[in-house]
């Protein structure tokens, strides 16, 4: 599968099994495999595609 886990810069899990990420400026909305949504404000600092991990520095 192609799901990813999203963490903040402290290593805390923000959301797991994310299928879709929508970015509008600093507003980042994540949608998981159950279609649950979570929105945070910040920017991506690292994308570890092989590990299915995305890192966000939150505002």
Q: Which helices and strands, and how do they pair?
A:
Blueprint: E1 4-8, E2 13-24, E3 27-32, E4 37-48, E5 53-58
Parallel strand pairs: 1-5
Antiparallel strand pairs: 1-2, 2-3, 3-4, 4-5
Could you please describe the fold and organization of this structure?
The protein is mainly β and 59 residues long. It has one domain. Helices cover 0% and strands 69% of the residues. It has no helices and five strands. It has strands at residues 4-8, 13-24, 27-32, 37-48, 53-58. It has a five-stranded mixed barrel with strand order 1-2-3-4-5. The protein is globular and about 30 Å long.
Can you tell me the residue ranges where pLDDT is under 50 for at least 5 consecutive residues? none
What proportion of the residues is helical, as a percent range?
A: under 10%
Structural class: mainly beta
Mean pLDDT, as a whole number? 97
Count of helical stretches: 0
Alpha-carbon distance between the two ends? 30 Å
Count every beta strand, where a strand is a DSSP E run of 2 or more residues.
5
% residues in beta strands: over 45%
Q: What integer value in Å does the Rg equal?
A: 10 Å
- How many domains comprise the coordinates? 1
Spatial sequence of strands, sheet with the most strands: 1-2-3-4-5
Largest sheet: 5 strands, mixed, barrel
Helix-strand pattern, N to C? EEEEE
User: What global shape is seen?
Assistant: globular
